[in-house]
Design brief:
402 residues, alpha/beta, Aspartate Aminotransferase, domain 1, Aspartate Aminotransferase, domain 2, 2 domains, 4-stranded antiparallel β-sheet, 13 strands
Length: 402
């Protein structure tokens, strides 16, 4: 009988989702799956009501301007959101500061703004523990610096940045501060006003416990964003140009109502379970995983000597074993799902010197993992490490028959 799957790829997407999320998505879409706000009949109005209430609810969740919840705008995911906000804030001659911790959802749009639109960019490195020094951000600010973009929690290293301190420095210098919360929204409390964050970019399918295909932006009311796309809004259709008002300024076409339902139910689940409590339990399991790995010869751990200001994402390698081979053996022999490679964040691996060895092995613990699953992962890595030792000890001629 096949072993049940052990899933440690929650940094890619949280799975499974809470049962109540699945139920509410199904029930709401069956009963209200019409185009919200496009028509005047009762069902369309009711569908639009959930969309509007979710804007208010998530604005409050992020500590945004509750009197400007129309600036909570929805898109496909955090990559889509960042591809809206980066060109929406930058113009030719503007300078943007970001970091070596970023995902390609920041790196590539920034590089396109530099190459194609005449912007300038600075990428700030992280220290040996995986953290950005806020003073390095401050030192990089120039007279033409328009935006600072920081990854709140690294999808590779799991380190959580001091966005409150960075936000304070940006506010003092009059620079717009954008935070990518793909890994932290739902596990780390975020308060835009207290942390001086101007824009939050979020995705629904991770710790917010929603579905794939929805994400967006929460934008403070003092921030002006250019409209960089255009199309249907279902509002004032006679207008030959895209609307300037929020949320339509940054929303296009039919909204993802199924995703809206998933985020609403995900907010219910987070209210019941508590963001801090979910994170604390995940970190207990992360500590158990790290402690287990430290007992295994040949395990190399990165930026997790201390797990303060950290997510439950752990990067490791096995000396002498390709990360991809580790992933295949965990999958095929132990039915454990993890992620290997560069994790769409090549600058992290470049700074760590891991590009030539094809990156690392990432374990990302979620809300529904167990201590028993962590122990199974430790045992599986010990098994792979022993295999590597035995393989190295074999005479050269024996390898052909291994």
């Amino acid at each position: 009988m096949e072993k049940p799957l052990i899933y440690f790829d929650n940094a890619a997407t949280v799975w499974p989702k809470p049962e109540k999320v699945y139920r509410f998505m199904d029930e709401f879409y069956r009963s209200h799956g019409v185009n919200p706000g496009r028509s005047g009949y009762d069902l369309a109005i009711e569908a639009g009501s959930l969309l509007d209430r979710l804007r208010k609810r998530m604005t409050k969740f992020f500590g945004g301007d509750e009197d400007a919840s129309d600036r909570l705008v929805f898109g496909y995911n955090v990559t889509d959101a960042l591809n809206l906000i980066i060109p929406g804030l930058l113009s030719a001659g503007d300078h943007v500061i970001t970091t070596n911790l970023e995902h390609n959802s920041v790196i590539r749009p920034v590089n396109h703004m530099v190459r194609d639109h005449g912007a300038e960019a600075t990428f700030v490195p992280f220290d040996s523990a995986g953290f950005i020094d806020p003073d390095d951000i401050a030192r990089a600010i120039r007279p033409n610096t328009r935006v600072v973009i920081v990854n709140h929690g690294s999808n590779v290293l799991g380190t959580v940045q001091a966005v409150g301190e960075i936000g304070r420095l940006c506010r003092e210098r009059g620079v717009t501060f954008v935070v990518d919360t793909a890994q932290t929204a739902g596990v780390i409390p975020i308060n835009m006003k207290a942390m001086n964050i101007d824009v939050v970019a979020f995705t629904g399918h991770k710790a917010l416990m929603g579905s794939m295909g929805i994400g967006g932006l929460c934008i403070r009311k003092h921030v002006e964003v250019k409209c960089v796309r255009s199309g249907g809004t279902g509002v004032r259709s006679i207008n030959p140009y895209h609307l300037e008002e929020y949320p339509w300024r940054l929303e296009y076409g039919t909204p993802n109502l199924l995703g809206v339902a998933s985020l609403w139910a995900g907010q219910d689940w987070l209210d019941e379970n508590g963001v801090e409590q979910v994170h604390a339990r995940e970190m207990e399991l992360a500590q158990r995983l790290v402690d287990g790995f430290r007992r295994i010869d040949r395990v190399q751990l990165y930026c997790c000597d201390r797990l303060q200001n950290h997510l439950s994402t752990i990067l490791m390698n096995l000396e002498g074993v390709d990360p991809g081979d580790v992933g295949v053996m965990l999958d095929m022999e132990h039915n454990i799902a993890i992620r290997t490679g560069l994790h769409c964040a090549p600058l992290v691996h470049t700074q760590l010197g891991l590009v030539e060895r094809d990156g690392g092995v990432r374990f990302s613990i979620g809300a529904f993992n167990t201590a028993e699953e962590v122990d199974s992962a430790v045992a599986a890595i010990a098994n792979v490490a022993q295999w590597a030792i035995e393989r190295k000890a074999k005479p050269r001629g024996a390898l052909a028959h291994a």
